[in-house]
Write a structure and sequence with these properties.
heterodimer, A: 268 residues, mainly alpha, MetI-like fold, globular, B: 362 residues, alpha/beta, 2 domains, eight-stranded mixed sheet, three-stranded antiparallel sheet, 15 helices
Chain lengths: 268, 362
């Protein structure tokens, strides 16, 4: 039957099963590959992967750094600075566009154009305009997520019921009070939604840029070790990226549920 | 009615599978063995792309050009950036690849490989470019030098430091893509006083910024960075593997003949440079001097058999081990399979010799 619900236990078991199947398939694939070529490093066995993990978390013999720590620090700083600028800018612009038709008329056309420009396609433009230091990563992420984010905020503001705004005005609220006490609150859960959706693209832009100009960071390490065919270093890095993205997403969902239960419960 | 839809879909699916299966069977009936060669845009490697353009070979799988017909083998060309070429070759997604002697070591640890054809050597194509105020290498101590880490760029840098009696530890080699590093220097971004890059970025940077110069380059280490075609031993052992090697060699020297012939030289040169960069004919002439072609079978043989190449390979291998480019040094052999049966990476002159023999017997 279409959409017939299944017990919660079942859905948990099936979820676990699918992950286990994936791992089993990988094990089979790597065994088969090592059967064909015992020296293979492209589809590493679990023990090779273990050695790779050891390599990235233990201090490196040559430079004494723990790769994962050094790369994680660099990439996280770039990512959070970029997200911070992009989100802050997007919210401010979105609010202004939603509240004031002058700004709306001014900014909607360029932003809808820019929203369709993939920042990875204009990497060279960023190098030319902002150089290759931290500013470049921040600018790239911020620029990449800002147009879509501001558009979503802008649409959210326009959806705030006019009666609410009229009522507040009648009760004597100032413009700032209306924006802060009504609009901002109404769109807050939507902002969390769009931030969640922005993390993925932000990571895409960051990793792409790091692959080209980084001398430390996830993108740098992944490109370097792909070239050296050390896939037992590459796969753990990919796993860390996935786990990190998932954790961040989950944290934001918790925040949303905690701060705006009215929004989340309305969903179901 | 609904039922019928399902039946029709099922029958269609079965029919599709059957045709695919039959297609495979027919494909096997036409026994031209097919081998793939991964290549990236670089003066001596673009020869294969140009050979496809001027229809000496047909780089598509299943289609044969005159050279392929002559040797009875299908060459499938796979063009990619250099990094993906290395990954493709290392993971067995192609039979052969255009790579440097240095980058061949790592894949050969897991996939025994044979260098069948040296294409060219860097003779100025890798260069350290510095701003005018830097006149001595010692001024670069503690300053960042930008280049792509663990590649021929770093090798060229470290080898030149060695030759100058400098200690590598006093210098800060910083990873950056050569295109990005060249761009930064052309823009005069602060901190970019020294970059080590390869062509076309060397010539482009020198053309666009008059106040920079070459402090040292690969002319001081001639023959140490060799661009070559490397084929997996397993592919050579397959039926048609040898014919593939000979066809690749034939293709390369056919283009070199066109470069030597005054009638076709310029257009071939332009064709080689077309996708490489927007350097003009004049600059391209310089490019092929800095990427010195081993343009005749005799020259190629000399490289594959000379004792100095053996010395060079030792040096390169030691560099790769000390810079963690390879986990361990591969055994390097010279000569044919019987001469070095256990070599992971073998420089084998017998394919060019065989090609010469067959050409002469005509």
């Amino acid at each position: 039957m279409i959409r017939k619900p299944i017990p919660a236990r079942w859905s948990l078991a099936l979820g676990v099963l699918s992950v286990l199947l994936l791992l089993a398939a990988y094990t089979g694939l790597s065994l088969w590959q090592h059967h064909r070529n015992p020296d293979d490093t492209t589809i590493p066995t679990w023990s090779q992967l273990g050695a790779g993990v050891k390599q990235i978390i233990e201090p490196n013999a040559r430079d004494g750094q723990r790769w994962l720590v050094a790369d994680g620090k660099a990439t996280l700083i770039r990512l959070f600075l970029g997200l911070l600028c992009g989100i802050a800018g997007g919210i401010v612009l979105g609010l202004l566009m939603g509240c004031y038709p002058v700004i709306e008329a001014l900014l909607v056309p360029p932003l809808s154009l820019l929203a369709k420009e993939p920042p990875t396609a204009m990497l060279a433009v960023f190098f030319v305009l902002v150089g290759t230091d931290t500013e470049m990563y921040v600018a790239m992420i911020a620029f990449g997520i800002l147009p879509t984010l501001s558009q979503t905020v802008y649409l959210g503001v326009r959806e705030v019921p006019a009666e609410l705004l009229d009522k507040a005005s009648t009760l004597g609220a100032s413009q700032l009070e209306i924006i802060w006490s009504i609009i901002a609150r109404a769109i807050f859960p939507k902002i969390i939604d769009v931030v969640r959706l922005s993390i993925g693209p932000a990571m895409v832009y960051l990793i792409a840029a790091e692959m080209l100009v980084g001398d430390v960071g996830f993108g740098y390490r992944i490109r370097l070790h792909s070239r050296l065919l050390n896939m037992n270093v590459v796969y753990p890095y990919l796993a860390v990226l996935a786990a990190f993205g998932f954790a961040l997403d989950y944290a934001l969902r918790l925040l949303q549920r905690y701060c705006c239960p009215w929004y989340v419960s309305g969903e179901k | 009615m609904k039922r019928h839809c399902w039946e029709i879909a099922l029958i269609a699916a079965i029919a599709l599978l059957a045709t695919l299966g039959l297609g495979e069977a027919f494909g096997a009936a036409a026994p031209t063995p097919s081998f793939s060669l991964a290549w990236s845009e670089y003066p001596s490697w673009s020869t294969f792309g140009v050979a496809h353009e001027i229809k000496l070979i047909n780089g598509k799988k299943g289609a044969l050009g005159p050279i392929e017909k002559k040797w009875g083998v299908d060459i499938e060309l796979k063009e990619a950036e250099y990094d993906p070429c290395l990954v493709m070759y290392g993971s067995g997604k192609c039979d052969a690849a255009c790579i440097t002697n240095m980058d061949a070591l790592n894949p050969s640890l897991t996939r025994p490989s044979v260098a069948i054809l040296p294409n060219s050597t860097s003779f100025g194509a890798d260069a350290l470019i510095v701003t005018k105020d830097i006149t001595d290498i010692k001024q670069l101590r503690g300053k960042k030098v930008y280049g792509l880490a663990k590649t021929v760029s770093e090798y060229c840098f470290v080898r030149n430091l060695e030759l100058l009696g400098e200690n590598e530890k006093d210098y800060v080699f910083t990873n950056m893509d050569p295109a990005a590093a060249a761009l930064a220097m052309q823009q005069k971004q602060s901190g970019f006083d020294a970059i080590i890059v390869w062509n076309p970025f060397v010539l482009e940077t020198l053309n666009r910024r008059k106040d920079v110069r070459v402090l040292f380059d690969s002319t001081s280490i001639p023959g140490e960075i060799i661009d070559m075609v490397v084929v997996a031993q397993a592919s050579l052992d397959q039926p048609g593997g040898k014919a593939f090697a000979l066809a690749v060699i034939d293709t390369y020297y056919a283009i070199n003949q066109r470069l030597a012939d005054p009638k076709t030289a310029d257009e071939t040169l332009i064709a080689l440079g077309e996708k490489f960069s927007h350097l003009d004919l004049q600059s391209m002439r310089k490019v092929v001097k800095q990427t010195r072609f081993y343009s005749t079978p005799e020259e190629g043989l000399k490289i594959l058999t000379s004792p100095s190449t053996q010395e060079i390979m030792k040096k390169v291998s030691a560099f790769c081990v000390s810079h963690e480019i390879v986990p361990k040094a591969p055994t390097i052999g010279f000569g044919d399979k019987t001469a070095a049966p256990n070599a992971a990476f073998r420089l084998d002159p017998t394919y060019i010799e065989e090609y010469l023999k067959q050409e002469k017997s005509k």
